[in-house]
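[09:14] KT: can someone run the structure on this one? pasting the chain below
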Amino acid sequence: PPLFPAEARARTFVRMPEPLSPRQQHCLDFIAAWTAAEGRPPTLREIAAGLGLEQHSSAQRLVEALARKGW
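[09:31] RB: done, structure tokens below
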């Protein structure tokens, strides 16, 4: 007999990314557009400049939030 029944193999659990705040969505859109245009992801300083943030640490917090939410 098979080690795992077909019913058990058919079940998969996919973790859906959490919804984003408008600011996080703007950051994600910026990263996607930059990557498409430049062929590489932006640095934290480039994200900060592109979003009008004064410090790159603010960009770092946004990127960390995106990662925590599964994006």
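[09:33] KT: thanks! Residues 22-38 form the longest helix (17 residues).
[09:34] RB: yep, looked fine to me
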